[in-house]
Amino acid sequence: MAGRCLIAFLITASCLSVSVSGQLPGDLFALGVASRLRKLGSILEQLTFEEGFVFTKDVTYVQFLDRVMEEERALRSIGTWDVPHPWLNLFVPRSRILDFDSGVLKGVFAGANPIGVILMYPMNRNMWDERMMAVAGNDDVFYVIGLLRSAVALGDVEHLERENEAVLAFCHNEGIGCKQYLPHYLSLDGWQHHFGAKWSRVTELKAMYDPHGILSSGQRIFSSSVLVALVAM
């Protein structure tokens, strides 16, 4: 991710693999745009990018929906699909994204060259229904950060998991205010902290629709004693 590095990325299964080495002018991001209309020219005019790094492809709507399958075929062809994937997905508030960049992308991951991708999607919070149980902080805009890395060599799983823990520790210590997507906590306190102000609503719905704890028991959000107390309320 740094200015002096080796970067390799696969655009799509049907495009060439592009490798860039040597001195780069800062960080390099791959920006993907999907449009039903032919307005890419006007969009690209607003961006600053390395000349020659534009790849376009016309596909049908069905092909667009099935694009992940093409990527799967490409990964299978090079043997990086059926391997462990210690992924970490986070919702990071816009107000702290630069701190996340300096502490994680330029800090924890400094010098790293893993197999995989880092995805960043800006999201408008007002497009999310507040009745949803997903939690994403209080900023009007937040980033969905997907650290989608693959363990392809001996010891990679442990190494990548340690890096994931270091990312979470940094965010906690610096008060980044990020939330995990599809988290796993071992204590009730952990789940309560994750849901924050929505915790009371979560417990209300659990007591109403699943008082016997049949659903999502593997997540261990509610113990038997907690369920009994909720139902009795």
Alpha-carbon Rg, integer: 21 Å
The average pLDDT is: 79
Q: How many structural domains?
A: 3
Please report the first level of CATH classification, the CATH class of the largest domain.
Alpha Beta
> What order do the helices and strands follow?
EEHHHEHEEHEHHH
What name does CATH use for the topology of the largest domain?
A: Vanillyl-alcohol Oxidase, Chain A, domain 3
CATH architecture of the largest domain: 3-Layer(aba) Sandwich
Structural class: alpha+beta
Major sheet: arrangement of strands: 4-5-3-6
Key attributes of the depicted protein:
alpha+beta; Vanillyl-alcohol Oxidase, Chain A, domain 3; 3 domains; 6 strands; FAD-linked_Oxase-like_C
Give a written overview of the molecule.
It is a single chain. This protein has 233 residues and is an alpha+beta fold. It has helices at residues 40-44, 61-65, 67-77, 97-108, 156-173, 188-195, 199-209, 224-232; strands at residues 4-10, 17-23, 88-93, 115-124, 141-150, 179-180. It has eight helices and six strands, in the order ββαααβαββαβααα. It has three domains: 1-82, no CATH class; 83-183, FAD-linked oxidases, C-terminal domain (Vanillyl-alcohol Oxidase, Chain A, domain 3); 188-232, no CATH class. Helices cover 34% and strands 18% of the residues. A four-stranded antiparallel β-sheet has the order 4-5-3-6. It has a two-stranded antiparallel ribbon with strand order 1-2. Mean pLDDT is 79; it is low at 1-24. α4 (97-108) packs antiparallel against α5. It is globular.
